[in-house]
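Anyone up for a design puzzle?
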């Protein structure tokens, strides 16, 4: 049976207050209040944006959703896990300070930012799953312990997974450091001959000390590499590459399996929002301001089905962008369908959906 995905048109130009009210209207129209119970500890999973990133979904846009959870007498907390790569989201202290500066805080939203994976990203619970790649996955402890989840994803392209939306927010964004390393395990990039300028940026950012610089170029030690993709993100000379056809399918399947773990025990207790605003071809982990968009603003999607909400997002972005997502992000070798198809296969949701437009 097709899953219902609710949709409301919106654009950044309307302002954060209007976006917040539209998200609230979607929450009410979708009848999502029933997923949350009084005294629930409710994780509001967000991405506060890397330090210089300016295209992430801003905190005031989430005020209406947080107020709905408070009205329902849950105990919401804003949350996100530590990153594998270095930066201001690498540990809970720096991440919390960045979140607070950006209004993801008691002062800004009336509820605290709490890292669910502890100070160092290592507070985890091993969750058994019926997966194809794994029989258990490592999920941030407080994601497992809380009673309900309101996931807020910014729909973007992604340099390895093609689409970065709800499944990636749940799979990568709710895993502990170990869970993230497991998902990246298949990704082993290499430096292209003749492209490297020896700028050293990848060497400085690599969290695994897997990069060496000789007198000609950078080299990656594949035994040390944990596949975090930081070198791909920081190289400004397009000098680091993957064998995408082999590797992005495994990454995407692993993301879906970790999403399954993150939602374990929360059937009927989770709601997924995709914000199709400032639709950049790379995700909010990119430490750059004013990243170019690949499609005009579309609106907000919400569903209790994490697969259907992503499928609807891809369909709307491809329709509005006028091309396949892989072409919009500039890498024809990537294919977003792996994560959706695998998520359906392991029982996470349905790709078939009925789009219900709100406020027409
Ligand atoms: S960031 Fe790119 S250009 Fe700079 S050293 Fe690394 S591979 Fe070479
Ligand atoms: S070499 Fe491996 S571990 Fe180092 S930044 Fe690149 S992907 Fe990450």
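Challenge accepted. My sequence:
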């Amino acid at each position: 049976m097709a899953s219902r995905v609710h949709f409301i048109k919106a654009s950044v130009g309307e302002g954060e207050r209007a976006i917040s009210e539209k998200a609230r209207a979607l929450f009410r129209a979708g009848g999502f209040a029933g997923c949350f119970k009084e005294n629930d500890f409710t994780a509001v999973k967000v991405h506060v944006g890397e330090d210089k990133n300016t295209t992430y979904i801003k905190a005031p846009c989430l005020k209406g959703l947080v107020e709905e959870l408070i009205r329902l007498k849950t105990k919401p907390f804003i949350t996100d896990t530590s990153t594998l790569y270095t930066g201001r989201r690498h540990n809970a202290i720096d991440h919390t300070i960045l979140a607070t500066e950006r209004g993801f805080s008691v002062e800004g939203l009336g509820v605290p930012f709490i890292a669910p994976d502890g100070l160092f990203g290592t507070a985890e619970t091993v969750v058994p799953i019926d997966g194809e790649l794994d029989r258990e996955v490592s999920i941030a402890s407080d994601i497992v312990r809380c009673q309900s989840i309101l996931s807020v994803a910014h729909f973007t392209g992604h340099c390895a997974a093609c689409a970065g939306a709800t499944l990636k927010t749940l799979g990568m964004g709710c895993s502990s450091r170990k869970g993230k390393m497991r998902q990246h395990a298949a990704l082993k990039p290499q430096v292209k001959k003749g492209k490297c300028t020896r700028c050293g940026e990848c060497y400085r950012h690599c969290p695994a000390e897997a990069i060496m610089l000789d007198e000609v170029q950078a080299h990656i030690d594949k035994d040390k590499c944990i596949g975090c993709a930081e070198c791909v993100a920081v190289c400004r000379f397009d000098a680091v590459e993957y064998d995408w056809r082999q590797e992005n399918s495994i990454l995407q399947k692993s993301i879906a399996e970790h999403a399954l773990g993150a939602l374990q025990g929360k059937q009927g207790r989770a709601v997924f929002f995709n914000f199709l605003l400032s639709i950049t071809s790379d995700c909010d982990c990119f430490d750059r301001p004013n990243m170019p968009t690949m499609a005009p603003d579309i609106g907000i999607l919400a569903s209790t089905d994490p697969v259907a909400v992503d499928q609807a997002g891809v369909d709307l972005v491809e329709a509005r962008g006028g091309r396949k997502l892989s072409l919009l992000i500039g890498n024809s070798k990537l294919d977003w369908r792996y994560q959706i198809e695998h998520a359906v296969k392991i029982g996470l949701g349905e790709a078939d959906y009925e789009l219900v437009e709100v406020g027409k």
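A detail worth pointing out: The pocket of iron/sulfur cluster (ligand 1) is lined by residues 191, 196-202, 218, 234-235, 237, 239-240 (CB under 6 Å).
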